[in-house]
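[INFO] parsing input record for Tubulin polymerization-promoting protein family member 3
[DEBUG] input buffer:
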Amino acid sequence: MAENADMEQLLTAFRKFAVHGDTKATGKDLTGKNWAKLCKDCKIIDGKNITGTDVDIVFSKVKQKTSRVINYEEFQKALEELAPKRFKGQSKEEALQSIHKLVEGREPTNVGVTKVAKTPAVDRLTDTSRYTGSHKERFDESGKGKGREGREEIVENTGYVGAYKNAGTYDTKVKAEK
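[DEBUG] output buffer:
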């Protein structure tokens, strides 16, 4: 039973990497890029026994000739290929179990994801209350952007000049004269 649970975790890891960074991915196929990411994140690539090149070669070896992705079965074959190289002192079965342990339950790590800089300089530059000139018009008091209203002069086609104070009083004047 233990092996079955491990396979579940392996499949889960495979699916998570398969959809990583691809909005259209179904989770059934793994691209070369995500295969390389999986190997890197799960520390299969150790820089000594296995390098990025080895990983690419194995990917090319297990995929179908015309295909650009590998499915779960091919993924397992690829791990079998890499296992003895990664764990040199172990038997084929032990090496395979060790490599499965590296991958199981893992998900893509987002190393180097850009974080929002919080420095006084940035705070000062993004403080909308200190804006002057035309930029001041683009934000309300709370610092929320006004959108198009703040950028463009929206024209009202009333027929009156922009700064005319008595707009809309014509009818009352004409009726008063009669």
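[INFO] Strands lie at 30-31, 69-70.
[INFO] shutting down worker
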